[in-house]
Amino acid sequence: QLQLVESGGNKVQPGGSLTLSCRTSQYTLEYYAIGWFRQAPGKEREGVSWISHDGSTTDYIDSVKGRFIISRDNSKNTVYVQMNSLKPEDTAVYYCAAGPVFGVRAFEYVIWGQGTQVTVSS
Q1: How many CB atoms neighbour CB 113 within 10 A?
Q2: Separation of alpha carbons 51 and 37, rounded Å
Q3: Does residue 6 contact residue 116 with C-beta atoms inside 8 Å?
């Protein structure tokens, strides 16, 4: 079964940058749309950014538009989200998830990683 592993989470100061990675080693990701979701303490999980299986379509929630960039390298079975101008409200556990079709809703994604912590604080 496809397993996703996130990495790249860390603690950074406001205004800083991080790049998260989502990869698999067992199977190819090229047939899957990938979404990044996040969950902050005491809050519901929310979708952040999504990319189609071939990278031709991307989308972002309004609060990260212009700051986050999602991309993928199917030859490396890896999807990235570059996060710039980070704000304290970006603090959360970030999850990547794979689904058969491009969509922005969590229920459309069937395979989830374990998450990586991003903390934005001075």
Answers
A1: 20
A2: 12
A3: yes
Q: Helix, strand, or coil here: 101?
A: coil
**How many CB atoms lie under 10 A from the CB of residue 65?**
10
Query: Is 89 in a helix, a strand, or coil?
Result: helix
Q: Find out whether 39 and 45 touch, Cβ atoms under 8 Å.
A: yes
Name the β-bridge partners of 72: 79
Q: Rounded to whole angstroms, how far apart are CA atoms 80 and 94? A: 12
- The label of the residue with tokens 């710039």 reads 84
pLDDT tens for 31-41 read 999 999 999 99
Residue 2 has pLDDT above 90, yes or no: no
